[in-house]
C-alpha cells in the first residue's frame, strides 16, 4: 500500500495570501503547501482519498491521479470538504455515486452544503454522493481494514484513520488514552503540527508532537497540517528528533 501527501498545509495554505514572511516567499517547492489531504493506494491499486478540500482539483492534476474509489472525511470544516463538488468528472466517468465515509454529523453537514447532490431529480451536471455513516470501530471496504481513531479538535470529535500499521491524524489537540492504544508502536504515524510555539486551542504544536513521539514510539512520525509559522522545511526538518520528519506535498510512503 502507499500513502501520498496531496497537501500538508493549514486551512489558509502556504503561502498565505498577502504574507511576505520567509516561508511564504520561499522558492523551495517543499515550502508550498496545499490544504491537508492524502491518497491511499491499496494493494489492489484502489484509491482511498482522505479529505477533499479546496485544492482537490489541482492536487489531482499535479499528482497525475485520475481516480477516487471512496472518500474518507475526518470532519466537516471547509478546508477538508469543500472540494467535493470537484469530484464531478470522476463521478461522471464511473457512472456511480461517490461513496463517502464519515461521522453522521459530518454527513448532515455535507447534505447542507451540497443539497443539489441529494435531490431526487438532479441537475445533469450535479455531483452525486453515497453517504456511509461510520462509528469508532474498524470497518472493511475495498478489501481493506480501516480503523478510525477518534481525536478532539477544539470542541468537536474528528476521525483519524489507521491502515495496517500506519495512522493518519489531522486537526487534533487531544488524544485519549483509549485511542492512544491504537497508536502504539506504529511503523508510521502522521500528526498535525500547526506551529513551533504558542499553544493553539485546536491543534498540536511542535512540543506536543515531540511528546507524543516519545510516548507512542512509532518508527517514523511525519508532521502535516503545517502553517508558515513552523518555519522553512529544510531548516526545521534537520532540527527534528531522529525519526521525525516534516511531510511535504507529493511525498509518498510505501507500507
Which secondary structure elements does this structure contain, and how are they paired or packed?
Blueprint: E1 2-7, E2 37-41, E3 47-50, H1 56-62, E4 70-72, H2 78-81, H3 88-94, E5 98-102, H4 104-113, E6 129-133, E7 139-141, E8 144-153, E9 156-163, E10 166-168, H5 177-180, E11 188-192, H6 206-216, E12 220-224, H7 233-239, E13 244-246, E14 252-254
Parallel strand pairs: 3-4, 4-5, 5-6, 10-11, 11-12, 12-13
Antiparallel strand pairs: 1-2, 1-14, 2-3, 7-8, 8-9, 9-10
How does this structure look, described?
This is Beta-lactamase. Residues 46-226 form the Metallo-beta-lactamase domain. InterPro entries: Metallo-B-lactamas, RibonucZ/Hydroxyglut_hydro. It comes from Chryseobacterium angstadtii. Pfam families: Lactamase_B_2. The protein is an alpha/beta fold and 255 residues long. The protein has a single domain, classed as Metallo-beta-lactamase, Chain A, CATH 3.60.15.10. 20% of the residues lie in helices and 27% in strands. It has 7 helices and 14 strands. The strands form 2 sheets. A 7-stranded mixed beta sheet has the order 6-5-4-3-2-1-14. A 7-stranded mixed beta sheet has the order 7-8-9-10-11-12-13. The protein is globular. The model has no long low-confidence stretch (mean pLDDT 98).
Amino acid at each position: 500500500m502507499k500513502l501520498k501527501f496531496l497537501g500538508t498545509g493549514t486551512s489558509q495554505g502556504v503561502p498565505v495570501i498577502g504574507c511576505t514572511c520567509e516561508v511564504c516567499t520561499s522558492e523551495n517547492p517543499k515550502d508550498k503547501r496545499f490544504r491537508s489531504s492524502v491518497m491511499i493506494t491499496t494493494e489492489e491499486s484502489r484509491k482511498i482519498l482522505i479529505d477533499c478540500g479546496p485544492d482537490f482539483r489541482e492536487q489531482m492534476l499535479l499528482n497525475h491521479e485520475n481516480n477516487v474509489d471512496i472518500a474518507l472525511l475526518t470532519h466537516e470544516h471547509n478546508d477538508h470538504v469543500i472540494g467535493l463538488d470537484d469530484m464531478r468528472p470522476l463521478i461522471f466517468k464511473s457512472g456511480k455515486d461517490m461513496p463517502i465515509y464519515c461521522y453522521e454529523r459530518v454527513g448532515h453537514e455535507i447534505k447542507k452544503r451540497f443539497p443539489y447532490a441529494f435531490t431526487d431529480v438532479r441537475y445533469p451536471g450535479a455531483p452525486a454522493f453515497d453517504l456511509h455513516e461510520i462509528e469508532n470501530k474498524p470497518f472493511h471496504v475495498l478489501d481493506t481494514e480501516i480503523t478510525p481513531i477518534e481525536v478532539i479538535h477544539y470542541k468537536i470529535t474528528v476521525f483519524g484513520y489507521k491502515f495496517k500499521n500506519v495512522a493518519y491524524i489531522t486537526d487534533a489537540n487531544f488524544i485519549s488514552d483509549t485511542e492512544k492504544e491504537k497508536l502504539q508502536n506504529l511503523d508510521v504515524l502522521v500528526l498535525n503540527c500547526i506551529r513551533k510555539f504558542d499553544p493553539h486551542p485546536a491543534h498540536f504544536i511542535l512540543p506536543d508532537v515531540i511528546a507524543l513521539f516519545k510516548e507512542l514510539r512509532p518508527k517514523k512520525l511525519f508532521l502535516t497540517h503545517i502553517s508558515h509559522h513552523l518555519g522553512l522545511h529544510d531548516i526545521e526538518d534537520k532540527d527534528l528528533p531522529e525519526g521525525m520528519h516534516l511531510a511535504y506535498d507529493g511525498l509518498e510512503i510505501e507500507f
